[in-house]
Design brief:
This protein is α/β, with parallel strands linked by helices. Helices cover 42% and strands 20% of the residues.
């Protein structure tokens, strides 16, 4: 396989740079902790590879030839660039203080704006998200956010908020299907976000809680809540909304409540503090719980 750079052996170049800088094979040997003979051997190998002399050997030391001086300047610039890059990395290690796991929807609709607000107060603390809609993908996190489910014994769970679940759609959709009552909604197209694995309330659950049977109208099934919300904004159908998540969409009028009926969410959104959590992760957890207690940003939807 061809090499990406037209280099001689890096060992010969390191030895050459040290000898050229000190004008001495002996001093270069001391610096690199090898024998002068080893330095001489490497320089000879480099000269053979290049087909020219790089040093004039003299009794009191060595002196660069014209070509040797040209190579020395290039080698020194290259090594200085590498040295600067290494110093930069050492001085600014890419560390993450807090790692939090959550779903795509919860991150986009609630968590990311919270992290932005937290950074304004604690710019020295870095927070990284691991986004996954697959259950059980948060084991390597300091913190994780869950919607209901079974709590593990001994784990530290803190409730963030518990929503009201409402039916949402666009004003145009409501007008096209003349939706004003629960009976009207029962006959309208509905967008179903798969929730078996995450425990999300489904349309069947929602209607049953309000005393109605399973809806029979056309359905659109998607496995991502953000796609479900977008489809609803495109007038495809009605979507269930968790009012602690989609407040911005409702305030901006992109989605509106289609009927007055609603049900309380059977489960809260909870923050789990994993045993590995550092003091900075716990500080962020405390702040996140407190921020969730602030006046609600009415929002909605599965995470």
């Amino acid at each position: 396989m061809s090499r990406p750079y037209d280099f001689s052996s890096m060992t010969t170049l390191v030895c050459f740079e040290a000898a050229a800088r000190s004008s001495s094979f002996k001093k270069a040997a001391q610096e690199l902790n090898v024998t002068p003979a080893a330095i001489s051997h490497q320089i000879k190998a480099l000269e053979t590879d290049l087909g020219c002399s790089l040093f004039l050997r003299q009794h009191r030391g060595v002196e660069l030839t014209e070509k040797g001086a040209f190579l020395f300047i290039a080698a020194q610039r290259g090594f200085e660039g590498i040295s600067d890059a290494l110093a930069h990395i050492r001085d600014r290690p890419e560390t993450v203080d807090v790692t939090i796991g959550t779903s795509t929807a919860f991150s986009a609709l609630w968590l990311t704006p919270k992290i932005t607000a937290f950074w304004k107060i604690h710019p020295e603390i870095t927070v990284s998200q691991i986004i996954s809609d697959v259950p059980g993908m948060t084991a390597r996190c300091d913190l994780s956010i869950h919607y209901g489910g079974t709590q593990e014994s001994g784990a530290d769970y803190r409730e963030l908020f518990r929503d009201t679940i409402v039916a949402l759609g666009t004003k145009r959709f409501a007008a096209d299907f003349a939706i004003s009552t629960l009976e009207d909604l029962h006959k309208a197209p509905l967008i179903h976000a798969s929730g078996k694995e995450t425990g999300w309330t489904t349309w069947d659950d929602w209607f049953a809680a309000l005393g109605h049977g399973e809806p029979k109208r056309r359905r659109l099934h998607v496995n991502n809540y953000m796609i479900a919300l977008q489809a609803a904004q495109d007038d495809v159908g009605a979507v269930l909304g968790w009012d602690g998540l989609v407040g911005d969409l409702m305030r901006e009028g992109r989605l509106v409540k289609l009927v007055a009926d609603s049900i309380p969410s059977p489960s809260p959104f909870e923050l789990r503090v994993h045993p590995r959590a550092t003091s900075r992760a716990r500080l962020f957890a405390d702040w996140l719980v407190k921020s969730a207690e602030a006046p609600p940003r009415h929002a909605s939807g599965p995470a």
